[in-house]
Amino acid sequence: MTSIRKKISEFQKILLNLANFKTNVMKYLKFCFIALLVSCNSFVNTPPQMPGTYLMVSQTVNNGTKNMNYTDLKQLKIYTDNYMMYTQLNPNDSISGFGVGTYTSDTGGVKENTIYRASGTTADTTAPAYSLKITKTSEGYNQVIPDILIDSQKSTLTEVYQKIGNTTKSPLDGVWKETESYTVKGNDTSRNDRIQYKAFYNGYFMYGQTIKNGSSYQTGMGFGTFVAIGDNKIKETDLNSSFPVNAGHSFEIGYELNGTDNYKQTINYPDSSKSVEVYERLK
Known about the structure:
Blueprint: H1 2-41, E1 52-62, E2 67-70, E3 74-79, E4 83-89, E5 96-106, E6 109-119, E7 122-124, E8 130-136, E9 140-150, E10 153-164, E11 174-185, E12 188-191, E13 195-201, E14 204-213, E15 216-230, E16 233-241, E17 250-257, E18 262-268, E19 274-281
Antiparallel strand pairs: 1-2, 1-3, 1-10, 3-4, 4-5, 5-6, 6-7, 6-8, 8-9, 9-10, 11-12, 11-13, 11-19, 13-14, 14-15, 15-16, 16-17, 17-18, 18-19
């Protein structure tokens, strides 16, 4: 009888060991499965989230034989949820430019569809769509445009951007197109014949304009910071502008919203004149 009980006890130990072994095996397999999922997910591409304000740090052009690096170009770029706009100024020759359009983001990067762009004495409403390879960084992002024509030569353009600005929201945040503008001085009203776009985001603003001059265009731009200084009033500080009278100066601007997609801004000057600009939101 004792021998039988001993054998039963030994058999129970064997069953217990088998149960523990099974449990450990299941835990190990579960751990391996979770590790595999984490490993696989680390290689899953996700569309880059672009909304923000970015200052270009450097630009590199590779024409197939050499790299040309540029760090002097002053360029600011804004992405909203659906639109993008950039303005730039080359301090070396004072040539300015800007562009505005829509964009979409997917696992392959960002595709920009330009509505309007201008540089120097040229303007274009038929610019090709560009596919940007985007790499997000801790400072901002890098973008690469392969096979872009620069000076009639197929090149690769690489730009490095630093994210700037704050998280303060404004009812003016977005990209706008000017529908009307004029200057009032005494009893005289002078209307502007131009194309102008403006954007606000993250406490920064930018504008770009073209004025038809015969068969060519005159391009102007500016960008800087803005802050609310009262109800329906902001102060804009131009950090870079193609207009010397604006560069480095601040302007107090009153604005009136008509719903969420239209606004009018007014600047009053010391000589009792004022400039008025009316905008419509791109949507």
